[in-house]
Amino acid sequence: MMSGVGRAAEAAAETALLLKYVSPGIPDPAARRILDPLPALLEEGLSVRWVPVPEEPAARPEGPARPPSPDDAALRGIAGKLSYASTSMEKVEWADARRLLEEAEREARSYRFDEAMRPLLSEIFLRKGTLALWEGDTASAESFLARSRALRPDFSPDPALYPPQFLSAWARAAGRPAPEIELLVQSLPAGAGIFVDGEKRGTTPSRVRIGSPGPHRILLAYPGYRDVAREGQWLPGDSEILEFTLPGDRIARLGEIVGGPLRGSGSGPILTEIAAAAGAGRMAIVVLEQGETGDALRVKLYERPPAGGDAVPIGEKTLSPGEHAAEAAAKWAAGRMLSAGWPKARTEGRERPWYNNFWLWAAVVSVVVAIAVAAGGGGGGSGSGSTTGTVAVNF
Questions:
Q1: Are residues 299 and 215 in the same domain?
Q2: How many domains does the chain have?
Q3: How far apart are CA 85 and CA 79, in angstroms?
Q4: How far apart are CA 267 and CA 258, in angstroms?
Q5: pLDDT for 386 beyond 80
Q6: Please, are residues 319 and 330 in contact by the beta-carbon 8 Å criterion?
């Protein structure tokens, strides 16, 4: 986990970016107890103005924009092509019929597969199946008819309108497995998680099967890389190869570099990009790791050299995960950063809070003691003797 912080400070303070990396295995609450207070605590000893970490761009869908919903003119146009195809089939003009059906399907696929479009798509596959049956291609005919049934499962052909040969093929299509959408999803690098409409469906490379037609969102995620998404719509029986290239995530990659055994080697270009995007003059990286015994936490501190280059380790400390771990980490880190040339916080000229004024409290003590003495020694009465005593004033 790598994160950045932003906090307003003095106008004259130097701009700085603090990145915090937590090694896997450390519970999030334990990490937050140490790292969340760190920026404010460091400002007590450093003259810096924290700037927010630059955000990586969110995953944007690849490919064409989402298809529009069909209007009445589009539906009439597709229905007209189907009517002309039916006429060509009756005239045994199979070539013209096949061309018209291809045009109708291509036009239908350019719109969203909503409830108005699904009956037309089902009709296109039904007529393609009928055409294949007339041409003697029984396997293709049954495949098209199965796709038609999947789009309109409540449809049943009227025996008075369809010949026995078609009805037999329709019944055999009903016995076939329901056609699914099959996508071969590949990525560079391989091993990315595949999410279909938010549901995890394996890792790349992998064949993903989807049962329902319509728009779907395919998202790929891989540690150290930015997520990539693609939106598309497919029909039952469709198959397609989807290839993705995942861009590197600068902050995640930097965390892996400084948290690993290379100790910052190769981080120069990434550091430069992050610093430039944040507009930070200085940059420090805090790495929180599990101690060797399992009870302690090891804190590593790196900084970006002023002249650029790889992250330079400037200290390492082992902490006990107690309630004062954040203060201990901040005190140690501030000292290491000051020794590395970070600007020291200015303490001169700062007004002391009113409750830290010695003379104020001296006056309060004097007034309280005077009141106590007056209460103990003054006043008349019928008592036969005087009393003395001491008053303890606790602050």
A1: no
A2: 3
A3: 10
A4: 8
A5: no
A6: no
DSSP E strands: which ranges in the chain?
2-4, 14-22, 48-50, 61-62, 181-188, 193-196, 199-203, 206-210, 214-221, 228-234, 239-245, 282-290, 297-303, 312-319
User: Per-residue pLDDT tens for 214-272?
Assistant: 789 999 999 888 889 999 999 999 999 999 999 888 877 777 777 766 677 888 888 88
* Domain shared by 76 and 168, yes or no: yes
> Tokens standing for 271?
């550091």
Tens of pLDDT, residue by residue over 95-130, are 999 999 999 999 999 999 999 999 999 999 999 999
Looking at the domain assignment, is residue 349 inside a domain?
Answer: no
Q: Is residue 203 part of a domain?
A: yes
**DSSP 8-state class, residue 356:** G
Residue 392 tokens read as 């303890």
Range of the domain at 272: 2-56+254-339
Q: Give me the sign of the Cα torsion angle 160, 165, 166, 167.
A: positive
Domain boundary among 245, 273, 291: 245
Tell me the pLDDT tens digit for each residue of 321-330.
Answer: 777 888 999 9
Any residues with CB less than 8 A from the CB of 4 and at least 6 apart, and which? 17, 18, 19, 20, 52, 53, 54, 251, 278
Structure tokens at 138: 């029984």
Q: Residue 120 falls within a domain, yes or no? A: yes
| Residue 348: inside a domain | no
Report in angstroms the alpha-carbon separations of 253 from 76, 94, 225.
54, 59, 8
Q: What are phi and psi of 171, to 5 degrees?
A: -70, -40
Last residue of a domain, one of 307, 339, 371: 339
